[in-house]
Amino acid sequence: MIEQIRQILKEGEGITVEFKISKKELNKNTFESICAFLNRKGGHLLLGVTDDGKVEGVEETNVQQLIDRLVSSMNNSQKLSPTVYLIPEVIELDGKKVIYLQIPESSQVHSTTSKIFDRNSDGDLNITGNHNLVEQLYLRKANSFSESSIYKFLTLKDFRSDLIARVRKLAFVRTPGHPWESMDDEELLRSAKLYRKDFKTGEEGFILAAALMFGKDEVIQNILPAYKTDAVVRIMNTDRYDDRLEVRTNLIESYDLLMDFIRKHLPDPFYLENDQRISIRDKIFREVIANTLVHREYLNSFPSRLVIEKEQVVIENWNKPYFPGVINPDNFYTHPKNPIILEVFKQIGRADELGSGIRNVFKYGKLFGRSEPVFKEGDIFTTIISTPKKYILKAESGDYRITGHDVTLKKEGIINPDAVNDAVNDAVNDAVNDAVKDRLKAELLEIIKNKGLSLPQLMKDLSIKRATAQRDMKILKDIGFIYFAGAPKTGKYLITEKLVQILGN
Q1: Are 118 and 129 in contact (CB under 8 A)?
Q2: Using omega within 30 degrees of 0 as the cis cutoff, is the peptide bond preceding 456 cis?
Q3: What is the rounded CA–CA span in Å between residue 376 and residue 314?
Q4: Looking at 356, 386, 416, which one is the last position of a domain?
């Protein structure tokens, strides 16, 4: 690091280098330079250095005060908007303290105290009143992707070979004969466009997307100190949380951790599609979690959040908006924020194109919760998924429901097995073993799903013998969950009003 700083001092100020004397306090124009670097190509800011590169040093008693002011101001939207999170470093040169701040190029347009600054060879340029320059800046940012930022000192040793092997396997399982199967680690990374050469500057190396997907945890935290996804449950303890998971690892394992968190805390209603049971919970949140990870603006310090509340799940992540407002799934323009990360997720079957993914969330979200999902695009991209109020809900094309005080039973619908499990466990004598309880639950679900079932049909659907089915039906009748209606040979078992009330509460 010291040799790198000496080389910067030797080259002097330029479009990517700025010196500030800042012996006791920050220069008044410090944030103009930070803003200009963010808006242009990024750069190196050194405090404690004169304009001609002479090291004067920051007074030692003021070093921490200047660092604290830098960090707090960068996270104050009135001082810098959008905010950023960068960690200044203290370097000792010739016995003097220098504060060093490496500033990345941002994919967003930044302003300081409501003024927009750009960078040129002469220094920081206030372009606020120049509509042509401001428009050009926005156009330039619209065509930039922060995931493509080159980190030329990243090497294969900074990546986890086990993660690359896992992605190689997932791609092959999804597409037999996938070319990644026969590639070594470096070939795979290059094939996935995770190594880039900038033909304007000649700079080349692995990019930010490579670190995010395959980097060791310490590498990711070194590049993006503020990076994390905060998952919390706020149902009982709304002032704080009932459960919390802080995710700071690579995107591949982040997906797994967040999906496990969802499965731990959200019900999975029973739903049949084309006579096959599918998990509509997983259908929805597979898309939502992938969207959160794939389309996030990672150079911003805003942490991604997933909050499970009593009536909804709210997901927020920092975004580079193109068409702010509420998204209409039937008519909206898709613009991937991180196309390289998206492509890797598509290759391993964890994401679809943005448009089809959102349409799937709307399709299944209306079955899962009490209202349609909501997608709001802005500086913060917000997704709201309504959660089930009761464990038996009306299906879009079916007629079986229990909602609130409505106990009308219709044909088929969405049933959360947990509700039936709890009802059977509470009502059946402890002397009945677990295997029998599991079979009773399955039989009860079949009866509910089919709005009544004859004994022969129950035997056929669950592949059980007559004597077993008859014995089980007697247990369910004795605890008051079913009754038999109709002629002995053609009648059906139906659920009772007692069970309806239990499941409806």
Answers
A1: no
A2: no
A3: 11
A4: 386
